[in-house]
């Protein structure tokens, strides 16, 4: 049985989900409406925080809320970097440099393997002085 705190969270998350759906429909018809887009993003963040809290404290209640509202949990990415044109160009250049240096090292290793080194003598006798 779910306690009253979980019920409050459930209804708040449900209200936020309904509000988010309304914002989505509105923004499909009015894509330039930045104020409502901001409100939708803020509602998404509030809902995400509440679900995160519920997931930490009462996982069974969290699962119940998600199944009732049709919300799917996705794990956040480990690392996210916005791909700008400059960053993409820099990464491509770094990869080219890495490939070229790798080829040079392979050539050096193959040349070292081809040329056998003469074994130095174990003992060098001193030259006699007259």
From TrEMBL:
Biological process annotations from GO: mitochondrial translation
Keyword Transit peptide: yes
Chief subcellular location: mitochondrion
Subcellular locations according to the entry: Mitochondrion
Pfam annotation, one family: Ribosomal_S15
GO molecular function, one term: structural constituent of ribosome
Stretch forming the signal peptide: 1-17
Family: Belongs to the universal ribosomal protein uS15 family.
Protein name: Small ribosomal subunit protein uS15m
Annotated organism of origin: Engystomops pustulosus
